[in-house]
Amino acid sequence: MICIITGDIIGSRKIKDSWLLSLKTALKVVSGENNKWEIYRGDSFQVEVQPENAIKVAAYLKACVRANKLADVRMGIGIGTVKNKRKKLSESSGDVFVNSGSAFDSLKQAKVNLAVKTDFQDFDEEINVLIRLALIAMDSWGVVAAEMVKLALENENIVQSELAIRSGRTQSSVSEALKRAHYSEIMEMDKLYRKKLNLKISK
């Protein structure tokens, strides 16, 4: 099983394209050694990641994009199997691509910016409720909050005082920004998502 995240930049024509470099850099980071990612039609993208990392990756991509003023991103997370694996993601096929496309297509109608689709309906229902709650915080990240979430996800094993040094901010402003972003609650959701997904996959 793999995970494909399909996304696009909201209102990309109305904003400066400073988000493009941020997005490219972020996709390189999250795809890791497999380097499976594509940007197409100017503002749409797909990336392959490990299924258990999907929530954390989505939070990271959102933080990277929202660190550019006025920019935001919509993403559909699909988990499933691959039928034909080609060099280009857009030429590959299988359930994972159907699920990712279906999750992405459901966003506008549901008026949300993130959703997950797997072959486990009860899992999807539970996780999508959690995602909608998390989006109350994530959709209102300002530039500073987004930058701090990005930095915290890139440096998960270091303490806030170290994050403060790296960001050139005071520890209290780092702490305040992460609190405003509801970072610890989003990481709790990530933990629960991983636990529930592992239970489903191991059955």
Automatic annotation (TrEMBL):
Output this protein's name: Transcriptional regulator
Which organism does this record belong to? Answer: Pedobacter yonginense
